[in-house]
Design brief:
This subunit may be involved in monitoring complementarity of crRNA and target RNA. Belongs to the CRISPR-associated Csm2 family. This protein has 159 residues and is an all-alpha fold. It has one domain. The protein is built from eight helices and no strands. 32% of the residues are buried.
């Protein structure tokens, strides 16, 4: 055991403790569970448009701030036709990536919280026993994400 380790704890300790938060502390996806069910499971277009517009208008995020995440969702969408299992695995891994980006954005004084919460609620609705249904749900997720990005301003307006 090195001088930096405590008994029962291995590895570097610098990133643990008060700064380390669970998923729930970073985003609250439960607020959007009902909307996610309507949009992802039932495919309700009006609910998709309404929520996307509301999020873009009230979030304070910019198109630039979510572009990289949207790009990953599009790449996964293209991969669905080639390797469904791999694509759906990457889709599920978008959740931790969103949590990370949200925490990072908070440190940079940007606000992705509302959008990330909604997207995570949508991702949680993707899982299904039938891979074809899961694929359809992911495509609805991409449609929702695209609508959010479309409504977001390119950059923040000076107030």
């Amino acid at each position: 055991m090195t001088q930096y380790q405590r008994p029962g704890q291995g590895g570097y300790q610098g990133n643990r403790g008060a700064q380390q938060q669970g998923r729930a502390a970073a985003v609250d996806a439960s607020r959007f569970a009902s909307a996610a069910e309507k949009i992802i499971v039932r495919g309700e277009v009006e609910a998709l448009i309404s929520l996307a517009e509301e999020l873009a208008k009230n979030s304070g995020a910019t198109r630039t701030s979510v572009r990289r995440l949207y790009g990953e969702a599009r790449r996964i969408d293209f991969l669905l036709d080639q390797d469904r299992a791999r694509a759906l695995r990457r889709a599920r891994l978008l959740e931790p990536r969103l949590v990370y980006q949200t925490k990072r954005a908070q440190r940079e004084k940007q606000n992705l919280g509302e959008i990330a919460s909604a997207l995570i609620a949508m991702i949680r609705q993707l899982k299904h026993d039938d891979p074809h249904e899961e694929e359809q749900r992911f495509r609805r997720f991409v449609e929702f994400f695209e609508a959010v990005v479309a409504y977001l301003p390119e950059e923040k307006k000076d107030e």
